[in-house]
Structures are given as structure tokens and as C-alpha cells.
Write a structure and sequence with these properties.
Layout (H helix, E strand, L loop, with lengths): L1 E6 L3 H5 L3 H8 L3 E5 L5 H7 L7 E5 L9 E5 L5 E4 L12 E5 L4 E6 L10 H19 L4 E6 L12 H4 L8 H12 L3 E2 H5 L8 E2 L5 H4 L2 E2 L2 E5 L1 H4 L2 E6 L11 E5 L1
Parallel strand pairs: 1-2, 7-8
Antiparallel strand pairs: 1-14, 2-4, 3-4, 5-6, 6-7, 8-12, 9-12, 10-11, 13-14
Helix pairs in contact: 4-6
């Protein structure tokens, strides 16, 4: 099975760039989207030319903001939406799909925002998300994927020194949040297979950043300990265009 995650930065915008053809090229068994920036009916409309998938979407109360979706070739046993905490569940940021052998959870972690005004809230989200997946892990392996809005190590962004503790996604608080997932038994699958490889998943639209490969690795697949043994490989699809992020994924044995 091929499991994929992609921050679309607007599903309707990517639909105009040929989303259905891109999905054929990726050929994922399960793909999670973040930042759909659309209501549920608009997500379904944007995917009207996509065949072969069961579609689940979770929209923010605020229109045109945030939002996640899961497309799955196989119908999940169960699908749930949100963390079950009202503070977090207004923005459509998480969908959990249960399958026979694992949970697939896609999430769009809150950005700490300009001036880091949401950093404290982001820290609460990280803690509550970890608690949520640890509970799921008691039942079966967990694969957590999505735009986690953090570059965990200096290798994960082009300019670590100039961004440290100044730019959302590379503050010590956010780094510690990710480290907390790791210390609680979760593995960054891409780093597991490629510990030294420099590869990014997001590039600013400014300054021709993608062409120059001045980017950040913000998109991840994390695996619980009991899931790692069934993963064959991890990948980042830098060649897939359409968003300021590119898809990332894992392949199961």
C-alpha cells in the first residue's frame, strides 16, 4: 500500500491545475489533504473528476480556511473527525480513518502565526494531539501524517540560523513539541530511511524559492513503534507541482 499526504493550499486552486491527473500519477491507496480551504460540498465538487476513492472531508467553521480530507480506495472501518476537544475542533484540522491493521490520521497542525501570536495555542495542540494518538496506538499501529508546521532539525530547512526562534515552524517550542512525539515512541519515517538526505516539502512562493530549492521540510509521516516494522520505504515527491507544498508518503510491505 502507498500512503500519501499533501498540503494543497486550496483544493479548488489545485483542481484548476489538473488535480485528478496528478492523483492518477501519484496513485496512492490513501491520500490525506491539508489546507483544502473549502467547505465539504466544495471539496466534493473539486473532486468530481476523481474516481476510485471514498472521500471524507472536514471543514473549518470559518469559510475558506484550513480543512482536511482523506481519499481512500478501500473503505475504512470507521472515520472520526477532530480531537474531541472543542477548542481545537473549529478548524477542521484532523481526520482519523481506521483500517484493519492501522489508523491513518491526517492533520494540519496550527501555524504559530505572524509574531508567533499562536505559539502558546500551538503548544496545547501538540500536547493534545500526542495524547490522542497514544490512545489510538493502544488498539493498533498509528500513522500520523500531514503538515506538522515544524522543521525538526537544522537539516530540515535551508537557513536554520536566521530563522531560529524568529520564524513560525522553527522555534525551540515547536522543535521541542516534535521531539516529544519522538521521545514518546514515534518515528519520523523519512529520517528513519534517509538520515542525511536534504529534501524539502515546502517552498515560499516568493523569491523563486522552489527553483532555487530554498525550502523547509514541514510535511511528515510519523509511525508508532508497532507500525514501523510494516513500512518498506518513505518518500518526498518533489516533482509534483500544484501547491507550495509537495506530497510525502510511505510504502507498506
Amino acid at each position: 500500500m502507498k500512503l500519501v499526504s499533501w498540503n494543497l493550499n486550496g483544493i479548488r486552486a489545485v483542481e484548476k491545475k489538473g488535480l485528478s491527473k496528478i492523483l492518477e500519477y501519484i496513485n496512492a491507496d490513501i491520500i490525506g489533504f491539508q489546507e483544502t480551504k473549502a467547505q465539504d460540498d466544495q471539496v466534493k465538487e473539486a473532486l468530481k473528476n476523481v474516481t476510485g476513492y471514498h472521500i471524507y472531508s472536514y471543514s473549518a467553521v470559518k469559510k475558506g480556511y484550513s480543512g482536511t480530507a482523506i481519499l481512500s480506495k478501500k473503505k475504512p472501518i470507521d472515520v472520526t473527525y477532530g480531537l474531541g476537544i472543542e477548542e481545537h475542533d473549529q478548524e477542521g484540522r484532523l481526520i482519523c480513518a481506521e483500517y484493519e491493521h492501522f489508523f491513518y490520521i491526517t492533520t494540519y497542525v496550527p501555524n504559530s502565526g505572524s509574531g508567533l501570536h499562536r505559539l502558546e495555542y500551538r503548544s496545547r495542540w501538540d500536547a493534545d494531539l500526542l495524547n490522542f494518538i497514544k490512545n489510538k496506538e493502544k488498539e493498533k499501529p498509528v500513522f500520523l501524517c500531514g503538515d506538522l508546521n515544524v522543521a525538526h532539525q537544522p537539516i530540515d530547512l535551508k537557513n536554520p540560523k536566521s530563522n531560529f526562534n524568529k520564524t513560525p515552524g522553527y522555534t525551540q517550542t515547536e522543535i521541542d513539541g516534535m521531539s516529544n512525539f519522538i521521545s514518546n515512541g514515534y518515528t519520523d519515517t523519512f529520517r528513519h530511511f534517509y538520515p542525511e538526505e536534504v529534501k524539502y516539502s515546502w517552498w515560499s512562493y516568493r523569491f523563486n524559492s522552489r527553483a532555487k530549492n530554498v525550502g523547509w521540510r514541514l510535511d511528515y509521516f510519523l509511525s508508532s513503534e508497532n507500525g514501523l516494522e510494516i513500512i518498506k520505504d518513505a518518500f518526498i515527491l518533489n516533482d509534483v507541482m500544484g501547491s507550495d507544498h509537495c506530497p510525502v508518503g510511505i510504502e507498506l510491505k
